Structures
1.
Amino acid sequence: GAVVSQHPSRVICKSGTSVKIECRSLDFQATTMFWYRQFPKKSLMLMATSNEGSKATYEQGVEKDKFLINHASLTLSTLTVTSAHPEDSSFYICSAREVTGGYEQYFGPGTRLTVT
Amino acid sequence: AQSVSQHNHHVILSEAASLELGCNYSYGGTVNLFWYVQYPGQHLQLLLKYFSGDPLVKGIKGFEAEFIKSKFSFNLRKPSVQWSDTAEYFCAVNAQSYNTDKLIFGTGTRLQVFP
């Protein structure tokens, strides 16, 4: 149980285009999902907390107009990287917390974004 | 602000050696503590967690961690590592009184185990 999927696993896009990444909790409901960015040989940096039915809470320094987050249902959150630039190339990971669970988070496999 | 430090960035061991990975956090209130593991090419998985009670926590695959409040530490241990333990290990902290679900991660420790 507690499986989180992400789609796509890899995406290459041209500079200036937008890319949408989906995060789904497959066998549980998640009121809260989290989006992280992982740099090579670095830790996970929390970008935003996504709450079902309300606006996401962004961490300091993360542009909310660039990284659009939507959490329309208890099993799906999406991250859209708008007008992507090469510096947005990274590994994006989502996690989800069960509605009835504790503070532990279940992580998706990540999405490798390359902007050319 | 909360922070998590993992001082061992890269650890190399032979099979059967004992392992201890350090984790220190900077927050004086009540915390929830976690160790996650990321095997090569795989997603983060929970190894163990501490919320309250016995400060010695046992996790999966023979791992354990000890919460020492006075030292703000939550070190991960395993008496005898295996080649399959080669992975990246992340310590994470959630500060309860901040009324948030956020996890703050350490920078990770890369463990390489040689047969």
2.
Amino acid sequence: GENVEQHPSTLSVQEGDSAVIKCTYSDSASNYFPWYKQELGKRPQLIIDIRSNVGEKKDQRIAVTLNKTAKHFSLHITETQPEDSAVYFCAASNPSGGTSYGKLTFGQGTILTVHP
Amino acid sequence: EAQVTQNPRYLITVTGKKLTVTCSQNMNHEYMSWYRQDPGLGLRQIYYSMNVEVTDKGDVPEGYKVSRKEKRNFPLILESPSPNQTSLYFCASSFIWAGELFFGEGSRLTVL
């Protein structure tokens, strides 16, 4: 089955700096890659996702890049703000079928702290 | 208001005492899933359901059961809970498979 590795496990930045979180996946058939943000004590919420027919997707200060050859994808947050502090999870799945149909595998999470 | 509702939110129980965590969504979503969250392990999928009467195992199904008799409800059943099932549990749903997941508020379970 799919295995997703996420790094780093913790990331500390100063307000205004950029933050990058990287995930690698094992199943070359995976082609849907969402990112979820979980604030302390809250539920995870989708912040951005990408499908394998594109290499990059942006939404204001966040962007996701995908390298299917290397089987990794990354979350980029620019001009970080204290409210960006949270746990971020990447995930991977193969929506097309096979034994992984219906499964969404998450990474271990990254605790991002943005210092004012 | 569109939401995923889980109950109970907090529960302390003892080994072997059957319990059910309910999950209900009011968005007419086809796909529903259960996850457990443990420190350092992220979110791990327990079971999922593509639609009514269609359920399948995720990555960590041992010790759990589910059912999907109605589209809106997807209860998680622990027939004989053990301490290693102490965790934070999330139910989630999406309109279609591989769409945005909407999570419930979570249920923190402690098994003594």
3.
Amino acid sequence: GAVVSQHPSWVICKSGTSVKIECRSLDFQATTMFWYRQFPKQSLMLMATSNEGSKATYEQGVEKDKFLINHASLTLSTLTVTSAHPEDSSFYICSAIAGEGNQPQHFGDGTRLSIL
Amino acid sequence: GEDVEQSLFLSVREGDSSVINCTYTDSSSTYLYWYKQEPGAGLQLLTYIFSNMDMKQDQRLTVLLNKKDKHLSLRIADTQTGDSAIYFCAERGTGRRALTFGSGTRLQVQP
């Protein structure tokens, strides 16, 4: 149980393109999802907290107009990297929490984004 | 703010026990987690412990928590080559749903 699916797993695109990444909870309803960014050989950096039906809460230093987050249903959150540039190349990972209690976060397999 | 620290690298021989250590600063931490990340993959939840517990054992994994010293450890018994990965310690403070992660410990298991 508690499976989180992330799509696509790898994307390469040209500079200036917008890229959408999907995060789905397959067998549970996720009221809260999180988006992280991971640079090579580094830890995960929280970008934003996504709550179903409301605006995402962004961490300090993360541009909300650059990284658009939509959490339209209890099983889907999307992260759109708008007008991507090479410095946006990274590994993006989502996680989801089932319910409102003290459940652990379950992670997707990540999306490797490469901007040429 | 909250801070979580781990040693960067650990090398053990197959069959030995591995102990990965973690320290944290948030005294309000309610839950502490261990995640495993294999190359190019997401994070797999291994185990977690509530802050009022001292120890939790799950098959080959043993988690020890010293709340006074804010020290958490993960012991892997009979370490196998398939255990080679990066292990992240993470904590969750009171009233927060987001996690604070350590830098990760790369475990290398030599045959």
4.
Amino acid sequence: AQSVTQPDIHITVSEGASLELRCNYSYGATPYLFWYVQSPGQGLQLLLKYFSGDTLVQGIKGFEAEFKRSQSSFNLRKPSVHWSDAAEYFCAVDSGGGADGLTFGKGTHLIIQP
Amino acid sequence: GAVVSQHPSRVICKSGTSVKIECRSLDFQATTMFWYRQFPKQSLMLMATSNEGSKATYEQGVEKDKFLINHASLTLSTLTVTSAHPEDSSFYICSARDPVGGGNEQYFGPGTRLTVT
């Protein structure tokens, strides 16, 4: 069974600084990979996804992620964070080609310092 | 883009009663829908996979007699929490897969906050 690890439970970043959130997955082949953001009490918003092709994926709100097969990683990055980026971020994998539900990491809580 | 709605957004019920949550795909037909549960400050856990016209497939540890799932049409799946107890209080989120759109992405509803008193 696949698993997703987000090693950082909390991350604090100053506004304007760069951000990298880590995600590692465990699966025999290349799964479909996703990053979602969740504000308190809200549903999920898809930031970006990787299915195949170019390993550097651009998403919404200035986020990007890079798939590294050799490291089984799909880290999320943003060059300059804004206070509105404070939220919970979830990495997720789909190993069933859309037929199965997603497996989520435990999430990383992003705090933005003024 | 594909939109998924949930109703109600919040519900409070008394212990021992049943609650029904609806999940609708508004602009596409979803042959497969998924139900997730999220406890406070935790991640989402897949509860079950709902396929239109067939029985739902439940994840290990999820009681199928307690969480009744019906996917009677291509745009509607319902989750009924039967004989709810305080420990069932959680945030329930559904998602739907659009087979026409490639089928590789799930579209999530806004979630339903269930509080059992």
